[in-house]
Design goal:
The complex is a heterodimer of chains A (394) and B (377).
Chain A: H1 7-24, H2 36-39, H3 41-56, H4 74-87, H5 94-107, H6 110-121, E1 127-130, E2 146-150, E3 153-164, E4 171-177, E5 188-194, E6 200-205, E7 214-225, E8 229-230, H7 236-245, H8 251-270, E9 272-273, E10 276-277, H9 282-310, H10 316-340, H11 358-365, H12 367-371, H13 376-387
Parallel strand pairs in A: 1-4
Antiparallel strand pairs in A: 2-3, 3-7, 4-5, 5-8, 6-7, 9-10
Helix pairs in contact in A: 1-4, 4-8, 5-6, 5-7, 8-9, 8-10, 9-10, 10-11, 10-13
Chain B: H1 7-23, H2 26-34, H3 41-50, H4 68-81, H5 87-100, H6 103-114, E1 120-123, E2 139-143, E3 146-157, E4 164-170, E5 181-187, E6 193-198, E7 206-217, E8 221-222, H7 229-264, E9 266-267, E10 270-271, H8 276-305, H9 310-335, H10 346-358, H11 363-373
Classes of the chains: A alpha+beta (394), B alpha+beta (377).
Chain lengths: 394, 377
């Protein structure tokens, strides 16, 4: 067991932190965390600016093979995510950089890799995910949107939903039923498509706070080139599973919470209640300390996942456990923080809101991590079935 | 960064698991629980031959010279098998001698500990039952070349069979309570000491130890007079991590036994492990175990490297305390009625979760340390 960083890693970590600290100074006042990039034009511009800055340093291709412009290793990627998480800096497309790129590297043809990886590394093309449908959520394999092969094209018809950032994205990756007669799990293909293709209609959906980070996407005779697929035709399910395996370790979200805790501690030290600092209240102390312990546990597990990935090993159980833990910690944190803020815990960003209203926002934003990327209930199934070997009744 | 065990650690782990599986079956655990001693001299002797008591004692004092991190690997295995006896008390009482002992004290005591000839325990808590210095009122007063100890200690693990007791005493009154604490190594046979085993949840032989004009030679003072509290803090910190490691092993056993049972037990024509109500609970137990494990490893690594880790040690203890109680509770619940019986192994773990929670500081004690370390005024 050795948790120490090498001197080179320490130096790179410092560079990641310094760069992110600089970028933080440029953030628009209404930027309140990752999801806001999809909701507001100025925040989206900020996202693109950060992407360009990171691309210049080669940081969007950390851990890739050098032949595709890669630099550094998986551990660098973790340290970079840590710095971005701490300062809350966007610019790393979760769909393009974090999900699609590693999938392409493992499963795509040389032609597809050469065509799609460089624009991702340059921070030029932003992606969205086209998976869920109104009747295919956790049971994704029961999807019904079709992509029927006609010569050198697929013609897509149907509807996708909960597509985060689809209204901002240049390209989308999705799974579509290409062989409706075939059995489940062997009837779909993983397709890459230009979101500007005629026949695509994108409608933003308001999230429960009224903002619109995600969309529903309608396909009406959308023609896409048949060569833009990943993996074998009709075997897109394997690619879906591969991509799902590139879960984020959660270090980004965890570092954001660690900084959130630091800010909350400062607020409690500076805010007087009943004639003394809020920090002197034993209940506040106990609850914040409890969260701090859980945060450290989450961070330790995230490093475990990163350590495995860095050696090209993967523990599906640990990745699922990490996802469950950090996302539900986000819920608890939001509840405790808004509770400690008292009546101010309900105030949105404004002159009345403590800490820019970030905790009011967390009070509804935490569902994004518990529900997306495989609901936490699905993650528990993964641990139970594939990890603990418990019987699965179909 | 590499979170895997080293080769030496893997060997140690395997050796410990094999040894404990053979030598320490649950029938013996129950027998020892019910005995007054709670200790098997035969196993003790064999463990001494394996070098366990001397694991972290430097080779020059007859020990194995292993690191604190290695000790954690061994303790995890001990926790899996819930080995009763004075091993943990002896090991954790060794820390203060290693850190604060004079050369003479080390030369006298450490080889004996390593050879299994000296069972040691620490007398810290008193009637208030608190882990800070304000709870210490047992007096040591100088008399010629000796000190006289008077007062009553409580919750002293295995004191009834210990050869020596590390006694935390008050030698001077002070405002905060932390000044004026002095440690003494007391021969348990000294006239004036009386001992009584307290009935406890885990039947782990915590004792009341009464000191009445117990005379201790000045040379048995550990560290400097009035300045013993930092030694106690160090022992609480290392002891907390050690106890966490033991708990991780126990938590793992609870998870494994529950998963295995749920695959065998058939109700409604299917193994109960097929029901999602149980599957999700077991997934939660596994997640709690895994989050605990790497938090403890982090603290252990820092301690082993000599890095300041009071925050991480307290975080680990405060977290694992709750996880062990919760996971062992769910282990009973998922087994159903069978695990509410004293004949079942799971309750052995559930009962110990309470003892583990209290040893070296309960959750609220450690959360307060964390509150200070994260910067709350």
């Amino acid at each position: 067991m050795n948790l120490a960083l090498t001197d080179e890693q320490k130096a790179r970590k410092q560079e990641f932190y310094e760069t992110c600290k600089e970028l933080e100074k440029k953030r628009p006042p209404n930027f309140l965390g990752f999801e806001t990039i999809y909701e507001d034009d100025r925040c989206w511009e900020y996202n693109l600016h950060c992407a360009k800055e990171f691309a210049k340093k080669g940081w969007l291709a950390l851990g890739w093979p050098t032949e595709y412009g890669g630099k550094g290793d998986m551990m660098d990627r973790v340290l970079f995510a840590e710095a971005r998480g701490y300062y809350g800096i966007p610019g790393v497309d979760i769909f393009g950089v974090q999900m699609l790129a590693p999938t392409l590297l493992q499963a795509a043809s040389e032609e597809i890799k050469r065509k799609f990886l460089p624009p991702i590394a340059r921070g030029e093309v932003m992606w969205c995910e086209l998976w869920s449908e109104p009747n295919a959520g956790s049971d994704l394999a029961s999807l019904s949107t079709t992509a029927i092969r006609k010569g050198e094209e697929y013609v897509i018809n149907g509807q996708k939903t909960w597509n985060t950032g689809a209204h901002r994205a240049d390209w989308g990756f999705g799974v579509f039923k290409t062989d409706p007669a075939a059995r489940k799990h062997h009837n779909m293909t993983f397709i890459l498509l230009d979101m500007k293709t005629p026949g695509i209609t994108i409608r933003p959906i308001p999230y429960l706070d009224g903002h619109a980070p995600y969309c529903e996407v309608y396909f009406d005779d959308v023609h896409v080139p048949a060569r833009n697929i990943v993996g074998q035709e009709h075997e897109g399910w394997a690619v879906v599973n591969l991509l799902a395996g590139f879960e984020r370790s959660g270090i980004n979200e965890i570092m954001a919470m660690i900084r959130g805790l630091e800010q909350l501690v400062r607020y409690c030290n500076e805010t007087k209640r009943h004639g003394q600092p809020l920090a002197k209240n034993p209940l506040v102390r106990n609850r914040l300390a409890e969260l701090a312990c859980q945060l450290e546990a989450a961070r330790a597990l995230a490093y475990r996942v990163a350590d495995l990935q860095n050696r090209n090993e993967m523990s599906l159980m640990d990745a699922s456990a990490g996802k469950i833990f950090f996302s539900e910690l986000g819920e608890r944190f939001a509840f405790v923080a808004t509770d400690i803020l008292g009546p101010y815990g309900q105030v949105k960003t404004s002159r009345w809101a403590p800490l820019d209203g970030v905790w009011e926002r967390m009070f509804h934003e935490h569902f994004i991590t518990t529900v997306s990327m495989g609901t936490n209930e699905i993650q528990r199934n993964i641990i139970a079935w594939y990890g603990l070997g418990l019987p699965r009744i179909r | 960064m590499d979170l895997r065990f080293t080769e030496t650690q893997e060997i140690l782990k395997k050796m410990a698991r094999d040894f404990l599986t053979t030598e320490c079956p649950k029938t013996l655990v129950r027998k020892l629980e019910q005995s007054r001693e709670g200790h098997s001299p035969e196993i003790w002797k064999k463990m001494a031959e394996l070098g366990w008591m001397g694991l972290i004692i430097p080779e020059e004092y007859g020990g194995m010279g292993y690191s604190f991190q290695d000790l954690v690997v061994l303790l995890e295995e001990i926790g899996r098998n819930i080995l009763p006896g004075p091993l943990i008390a002896t090991m954790t009482s060794t820390f203060p001698i290693l850190q604060a002992g004079t050369e003479e004290q080390k030369k006298t005591l450490l080889p004996k500990i390593a050879q299994g000839e000296l069972i040691l325990t620490t007398a810290l808590l008193e009637s208030e039952g608190v882990f800070d210095a304000s709870g210490i009122s047992v007096r040591a007063t100088p008399k010629g070349n000796d000190f006289l100890i008077n007062g009553t200690k409580l919750f002293v693990e295995m004191a009834h069979i210990a050869n020596s007791i590390l006694c935390v005493t008050r030698t001077k009154d002070s405002g905060s309570g932390e000044k004026g604490i002095t440690l003494f190594i007391v021969d348990a046979k000294t006239p004036g000491i009386s001992c009584e085993v307290m009935p406890t949840t885990a039947a782990d032989k915590l004792c009341e130890v009464r000191f009445k004009d117990v005379s201790v030679p000045r040379k048995n003072m550990l560290g400097k007079i009035d300045e013993g509290w930092p030694i106690v803090e160090m022992m609480l910190r290392k002891g907390a991590i050690a106890k966490c490691a033991e708990s991780i092993g126990a938590i793992q056993t609870c998870v494994e036994m529950t998963v295995a049972y749920s695959k065998e037990r058939v109700q409604y024509e299917r193994p109960i492990g097929a029901f999602q109500a149980l599957q999700h609970k077991m997934a939660d137990m596994w997640t709690a175990m895994e989050t605990s494990r790497y938090l403890v490893y982090e603290a252990a690594w820092m301690e082993s490297e000599g890095l300041p880790c009071a925050k991480e040690a307290s975080m680990a203890k405060a977290y694992v305390n709750e996880v062990y109680k919760d996971v062992s509770k769910w282990a009973v619940r998922l087994h159903g009625a069978i695990a509410t019986s004293a004949d079942h192994d799971i309750p052995l773990y559930y009962r110990r979760s309470k003892a583990a929670d209290i040893a070296f500081g309960n959750t609220d004690f450690h959360r307060e340390i964390v509150a200070q370390k994260i910067g709350l005024v």
